[in-house]
Amino acid sequence: MKTKSCVCFGLNPAYQCTLKFKHFQFGEVNRAEEAINFVGGKGQNYTVACEQLKKSDNVTLVQFTGGSTGEYIKNFFDSQNIQHISIETSGKTRNCTTLLDKNTGVMTELIEPSAEITSEEKQAFETAVLDMFNDPQNNIELISLCGSLPKGLDGSTYEFIVKNSPEKTFVFLDIAKNIDCMKTGKVDALKINFEEAYGLCPKDLIQDKKDIHSIGKILMSLYPVKVVAITDGPNKAYMFARQERNITASYKTYQYTIPNIINYLEEDNTKSDNINLRINPLGAGDTCSAVFTMKYIELKDFVQAYRYGLAAASASCLFTNSTAHFQLDKMEAIYQAIIVEEL
C-alpha cells in the first residue's frame, strides 16, 4: 500500500462543531449566534497543520471513520488532496461540540464516546498497517501516533504499530495513555503537556508536581527515548534531549520562553474588549507536534525543530474560527522571538 514519507495515526477522529453564544446559561435554552463545523481529533489536527506548513504532500493520515460524520471527514481530506487511509467502521464517528460564551470567553467541551471498533475492523486495520510498512515502494521517514484510542482498542494497538515500524523510521508520540509502546526501544520522541507529563510519573518518585526537572529526569530514566518535550500553554516549555534511545545516556535540558501572542494580533483584533475571544488555543498542541516533527525531518535538529513547533502553536491561537491553522510569517516572527536556554 503506497504511502507518503510521513504516516500519521489519528485513530480517534471527530466531527467538530463549535457553537458561539452571546451568553451561555446552564439549564436554559441557549441559541447560538454562530456555528462552525470542522474536522477534529489530534491526528486530524496534526495533518491540517502539516498542510498549513505546505507539507501535505508528505503526509498519509490513517484513521477509522463511519457514518455521515465519517464521510464528512473523508470528504474534507479529499478536498484538500491529502492522502488518507480510512478504515470503515459500522459505528459512526463521534461528535465533539465546543460551547463558547462570547461574554466571558469560557469554553465548554462536550465529547461523545467513540463507537466501538469490532475485531474485524481491528484486523482490517492491522492488515493495512503491515501492507504499508512492508511495501518496498514506501520510504517512511516518520511515524506519528496522535491522541486517544477508540473503544475496542488498547495500548497493544500502538505497540503493534511501533514494533512493526520500519527500521530507521523516526517514531513520535503525542499521547498520554496506553504508552506501553514507549518500552519497546523504538520510540524516539514524546510530546505532551505539563499535566500529562506529571501523570506519567510514579507518584512515589516525585515530591513536587511543579518541579519540571524532576519530571524530566523521571521520564528520561523510565523510557528509552531520545526526546521528551513538555508544553504548558503560554508558559515556558521544556525539552529533555539525548542522542540515543538509552535510559542510561546523558541528556540536556532546554527551556523555551514564549512571547505574548497578543503582540502578534492583527490591529483590528486588538480592539476587542474580551481578550479570550481573540485567542483560540484549540489544536495548538497538535499544531506544535506537526511542525516539530516536520521540521525535525527537515533540519535534524531537535532544539530548533521544537522552537518552530512552539512558534506555530502560538500562531495557530490567532485563528479564532479555525483549528490548527496559522500564517507562516507569524510563525517565523514568533520563532525569532522565542528564547531558548540550555539549563
UniProtKB/TrEMBL annotation:
It holds the Pfam family PfkB. It comes from the Eukaryota. GO terms for biological process: carbohydrate metabolic process. GO terms for molecular function: ATP binding; kinase activity; phosphotransferase activity, alcohol group as acceptor. PANTHER family: 1-PHOSPHOFRUCTOKINASE-RELATED, ATP-DEPENDENT 6-PHOSPHOFRUCTOKINASE ISOZYME 2. It comes from Piromyces finnis. The keyword Metal-binding does not apply. This is Ribokinase-like protein. Belongs to the carbohydrate kinase PfkB family. The keyword Secreted does not apply. Residues 5-245 form the Carbohydrate kinase PfkB domain. Keywords: ATP-binding, Kinase, Nucleotide-binding, Transferase. InterPro entries: PfkB_dom, Ribokinase-like, Tagatose/fructose_Pkinase. The lineage of its organism: Eukaryota, Fungi, Fungi incertae sedis, Chytridiomycota, Chytridiomycota incertae sedis.
